[in-house]
Amino acid sequence: MKKIKVGIVNYLNTRPMLYGLEHAPVKDQIDFMPDYPANVASDLIEGRSDIGLVPVAVIPKLKEWRLVGDFCIGCDGPVSSVCLFSETPLEHVETVLLDYHSRTSTELARILLREHWKKEVEFVHATPGYRDHIKGNTAGLVIGDECFEQRKISPYIYDLGEAWKKHTGKPFVFAAWVSNKSLDPAFIKDFNEANAYGVNHIPEVIASIGPYGLYDLQTYYARDMSYNLDESKKKALTMFLERLSGS
């Protein structure tokens, strides 16, 4: 039986879903393709994978797409792992370095700076090591696990999940399971149940990660992250994609 090629990101925020997939029978039907969010997106766009946990900003680039299941990488307020960092207050920032890992976060930063903070800056697409240049009037967008490291360094932290909530009153979807073709409903059911298992067994997920000194993982999973792809998140996703098309 041909396996389903699944693009996955092994970040802290994806660990519950990955844990569920790794501990469910559906894993025998899956060929896991771990990578950075941007590369997972490219694989889906180019047809090298069948389904991916992709930054939602890439959805308009897909010739055909379907949301798969009931789970996503989302938040309903502060997310803690997608932030702008700077040495000075935002009003003094002139340049923003954009994390190269995820297009959703970079587009969200652009939208919020324009609409919410009413701030004009120069955007620079960053390269590895860019965090060393977050100084003076240069801020940086940092996402994922590195964000927790940067929280220990930069005095000014602007949480993009919190800013979006203040600006729109809605939750936010950073990434979702998206397929580029029709998939077997039986597979989707098993896949969704595996995701649910991980999301509903957070203590096991935390135990599998082991000691983590940068941030309290119980707080992260229980308060900061919101995994259910409910109707409010779907509406927020539509709102973001509309703003994206106009940006």
Specify the oligomeric state: single chain
How much helix is in the residues? Answer: 25-40%
Instruction: List the uncertain runs.
Output: none
What is the CATH topology classification name of the largest domain? D-Maltodextrin-Binding Protein, domain 2
Architecture of the largest domain, CATH level 2? 3-Layer(aba) Sandwich
What letter string, H or E per element, gives the SSE order?
EHEHEEEEHEEHEHEHHHEH
CA distance, first residue to last residue: 43 Å
Number of helical runs?
A: 9
Radius of gyration: 18 Å
User: What is the mean pLDDT?
Assistant: 95
Largest sheet: 6 strands, mixed
Relevant CATH superfamily of the largest domain: Periplasmic binding protein-like II
Name of the top-level CATH class of the largest domain: Alpha Beta
**Structural domain tally:** 2
Describe the protein.
With 247 residues, the chain is of the alpha/beta class. It is 37% helix and 24% strand. It has nine helices and eleven strands. The strands form two sheets. A six-stranded mixed beta sheet has the order 2-1-3-10-4-11. The protein has a five-stranded mixed beta sheet with strand order 7-6-8-5-9. β1, α1 and β2 form a beta-alpha-beta unit.
Write the layout of secondary structure elements.
Elements: E1 4-8, H1 15-22, E2 30-34, H2 37-46, E3 51-55, E4 66-75, E5 82-86, E6 95-98, H3 103-115, E7 122-125, E8 138-143, H4 145-150, E9 156-159, H5 160-168, E10 172-179, H6 185-199, H7 202-209, H8 217-224, E11 226-228, H9 231-245
Helix pairs in contact: 1-6, 3-5
